[in-house]
Write a structure and sequence with these properties.
The protein is built from twelve helices and eight strands. It is α/β, with parallel strands linked by helices. The protein has a domain of 204 residues: Aldolase class I (TIM Barrel, Alpha-Beta Barrel), CATH 3.20.20. Strand 4, helix 4 and strand 5 form a beta-alpha-beta unit. Helix 4 packs parallel to helix 6, helix 9 runs antiparallel to helix 10 and helix 11 crosses helix 12.
Length: 293
Amino acid sequence: MSNLKDGFYTALGTPLDKDGNLVKESLKKHINGQIDAGASGLLLMGSMGIEAYLKNSAYADCVKVAAETVGGRLPLFIGAMDTSFARVKEKLDLIGDADIDGIVLTVPYYAPVNDEQAINWFLRLADIAQKPIYLYDLAVVTKYKINMSVIDAVINHKNIKGIKTADFELIKAIEVKYPSADFECLCSRLDSFDYMNMMGIGKNLDGMFACAPKNGKKMADCNRNGDFVGARKYLDNILLLRDTMIQYRLMTAFTYCMNLLGCEGNFHQDYWLDVTDEGKEKLKETMIKIGEI
């Protein structure tokens, strides 16, 4: 069933300047840092990568820079989420024949869809995409939960290759019903990554690995060795950082943490307020405490 390695998969951040242009050298440093840390794969322009907020020129630059920087060293997936076929098609055209391994898609996220519309959406886009499609189950944004009826309808399409979801029950149902399918399940249930690995779900994808690569590597190493107690220790470090970031404006806190790692630029939506001085002090203290800086 699986062609992807177990381990941590990082949802990358997207560094921008004040005008919303990609800070190319920062993205290169970010990617190489993740590869050096042992990431099993990368998701470019997912939720943490603020894909929905990027202008088309920045989107195209991200694809080009990331594909060239990765250079086939590990799987690279690109987010192309949007609200219509026409808008996603434009993004697929911007991706073109770039050296990537898959395109990640939610259902449209402005107006909620039903099962019939979701199935039509994924199948039509899979028909035209030049790269494999991976479903992105993100009900908190789309107000629609991908379920087994959708999986049943799309899993045999030759160009649909997997799903990113936090739904443990959905992953297990897919594995039980389709044990031989060419279909990957990447788990994004951060708080339960230790339990997921104990249950044999070893592909862990999250944006927090972007600013906690050292802990991500140590967690993944522990999981590979069956040391789930040790893995929980490093997961708790990541959760501590996440909870601190939430306390002090999540996305601008993410920018500050990435800047502490030496990656320049803004990693947040352009309407977010800056982190307070108190927040910066606390975030730096936490990054030091968990060993990221």
